[in-house]
Amino acid sequence: MGKEKLTNHLHQLQNESKNLFVPYIMAGDGGLDKLEENIQLLQNCGVAAIEIGVPFSDPVADGPTIQNAGKRSLENGTTLTAVLQKLELFKAKRTVPIIVMTYINLIYKYGVSRFAKSCVQAGIDGLIIPDLPIEEEKMVTDVLNQQSIALIRLVALTSSKDRIKMLANRSDGFLYAVTVTGTTGERTTYEKKVKTYLYQLKQQSPVPVLAGFGISTSEQAIELASYCDGVIVGSKIVDLFHQGKTAEIKQLIQTSI
User: Fold this and answer.
1) Region class of 200: left (phi > 0), else alpha (psi between -120 and 50), else beta
2) What residues have CB less than 8 Å from 75, skipping those under 6 apart?
3) What does the pLDDT look like over 129-180, one tens digit per residue?
4) Secondary structure class of 15 (helix, strand, coil)
5) What pLDDT is recorded for position 190?
6) 191 a catalytic residue
7) Is-catalytic flag, 75?
8) pTM here?
């Protein structure tokens, strides 16, 4: 489980010459009872891992689609505790790594050590904490390492060369390459500098590089993956689940990998 499971699964897919595809879903959007069904669908499509968002009242990294999904989830009464408990119920049925994306306030309130142990019990393999700067991550890294939970770092277009090197060397599982300046959401085109940035990250990162933010079509996914190792797709997947368009989700994933 944990860090080792995530690392091994990504390497296995890369050995099969597949683009890595990580979909993002919002836990509790449509009700927490849908979480198992949605994960099963994504797992059956051959995804590299599944990123699960926990709703938060002040989601600094999220664009309008995911913000709205978070609001719907909060209105359904979704909490961090409820998400962890739900994931634990069907952990034996999951074969792909599970990554939880949440904010440091929720973890701190829950209790860092208690949260890490709950993640292990729930079968969670990795974490993304977008508002935790590398200078302050010591508050969680020791505990996460003890439980062998991967901490996936995010790197931005605006990051300095020294910071990129530091983040790449510290990231577990994969390096999350943010491809826009701003929040999540669908984009129509990517500038040449984004492709150069991904290519350069790929050259210096000891772990796979996945491009995220704004990817909404298989054409974009394939194009960006040609400069790195794969993609993370959030807003488009969240929107399609909200509309009940599961056939389109399957098509998007299967034509992207």
Assistant:
1) alpha
2) none
3) 999 999 999 999 999 999 999 999 999 999 999 999 999 999 999 999 999 7
4) helix
5) 59
6) no
7) no
8) 0.94
Give the active site residue among 62, 172, 186, 239. Answer: 62
32 close to 83: Cβ distance less than 8 angstroms: yes
Q: Which of 29, 51, 172, 186 is catalytic?
A: 51
Q: Which segments of the chain have a pLDDT < 50? A: 183-188
User: Is 83 exposed, middle or buried, given 0-12, 13-18 or 19+ CB atoms closer than 10 A?
Assistant: buried
DSSP state of 189: -
| 30 touches 241 (CB < 8 A) | yes
Q: Is 36 exposed, middle or buried (0-12, 13-18, 19+ CB in 10 A)?
A: middle
Segment 176-197, tens digit of pLDDT: 999 976 544 444 455 788 999 9
